Amino acid sequence: MGGIILGIESTAHTFSFGCVSTDGELFPSFSSLFRPEEGGIHPREAADHHSESTANLLNQLSSNKDFSWESIAAVAFSQGPGLGPCLRVGASVARTLATRLSVPLIGVNHCVAHIEVGRNQTGCIDPVLLYVSGGNTQVIARADGRYRVLGETLDIGIGNMLDKFARSQGMPFPGGPKIEKLSRAYANSGPQSLDDAYLPYGVHGMDLAFSGMLTSATQKVSEGSPLEQICWSLQEHSFATCVEVAERALAHTGKTELLLGGGVACNERLRQMSQIMCEERGAACYWPDKQFCIDNGTMIAELGRRMLECGIETELMDSAIDPSLRTDNTTVVWQ
Ligand code: ATP
Ligand code: FE2
User: Fold this and answer.
1) What is the pLDDT of residues 175-186, one digit of tens each?
2) Which of 132, 215, 246, 308 is most exposed by smallest CB count within 10 Å?
3) Beta bridge partner(s), residue 284
4) What secondary structure does DSSP assign to 227-251, as a single string?
5) Is 210 part of a structural domain of the chain?
């Protein structure tokens, strides 16, 4: 590696360090995922996990043959949005490293980082982004120097909904990949049927909602519907809502590229449904590698790189975290 930007991600369950070269080559991240023994993610416990993983992750990063501390040109970190205690761990490590190495510190918007790593990896230019993760579900497009949220979930994030349903059926976090597996088994087992498997469809104008779907799916399983069928139905309904709003965003903005991002964008069925919608309207559909869909340090480094190129740095006194930072808070000055 020549000059590199180091990125640190710590918004929720994932603590991750990743690098990008100053000319935009992405390198795999070193990550540790906090998996609660039971229940949801307790912010304090996740933050403890991040603190305890720091030395190990930094050792892995620095023993990588391409890495040297001397080549670090800047340190970027997730400034928000996310869980306060978790964000604080990442920010502290970033401040320490930037100060010790005497390089610029760059606080970045986590949601915008999902977009920029996707643009880097896929080469798309001005997409509508379907951002589907645990905590966030947004349809975003760039207009007048910001990424504008055109539509979003009115209650919980789609990934969070999948995780909650999975947990109610005894499947541990993260539930999304397990639901995908069961859905595929159902889809491959014979003709698919929505009989007794209709769920409330949560599209409200450009916005989405998932909690009604979740309650109904849980109820159907407890009334005896087969789990595999309900997993499949839950995917079909929730993904259809996202693809519908994404299509409307393409129509309203006149843009011709759709980019998927966030952990749920790992899902093959969502990719397929998005691809079909795009083909039908003459648009192009893109998604980054799975390693860059889920939370990762490399995406934070990539947004840091773009900001640094435009001369943007974060002074220590401005480096406080912002748990409720919005996608459209960040002015987008880079191309
Ligand atoms: P954000 O802070 O952006 O909201 P996040 O903290 O939820 O992100 P991500 O790593 O982007 O973290 O996404 C994790 C979510 O992605 C989890 O809800 C997980 O179940 C879901 N997920 C991962 N793989 C799949 C998959 N194959 N199918 C469906 N969902 C998936
Ligand atoms: Fe994320």
Assistant:
1) 999 999 999 999
2) 215
3) 257
4) HHHHHHHHHHHHHHHHHHHHHHHHH
5) yes
Element housing 22 (H / E): none
| pLDDT per residue as tens digits for the range 44-82 | 999 999 999 999 999 999 999 889 999 999 999 999 999
Q: Is 267 in the pocket of ligand 1 (CB under 6 A)?
A: yes
Q: Residue 34 has which token pair?
A: 């906090």
Q: What is the domain count for the chain?
A: 2
Which residues are bridge partners to 21 per DSSP?
A: 4
88 — phi, psi (to 5°)? -65, -35
Q: How many residues does the chain have?
A: 335
Q: Which two tokens stand for residue 148?
A: 């504008």
- Domain residues for the domain of 80 are 4-116+292-329
- In angstroms, the CA 29 to CA 16 distance is 6
Quote the ligand 1 centre to 175 CA distance (angstroms). Answer: 9
Would the pTM count as exceeding 0.90? yes
Q: Which of 153, 272, 295, 324 to mutate to test the pocket of ligand 1 (most atoms within 8 A of CB)?
A: 295
Question: 188 alpha carbon to ligand 2 midpoint, in Å?
Answer: 31
Q: Are residues 314 and 257 in the same domain?
A: no
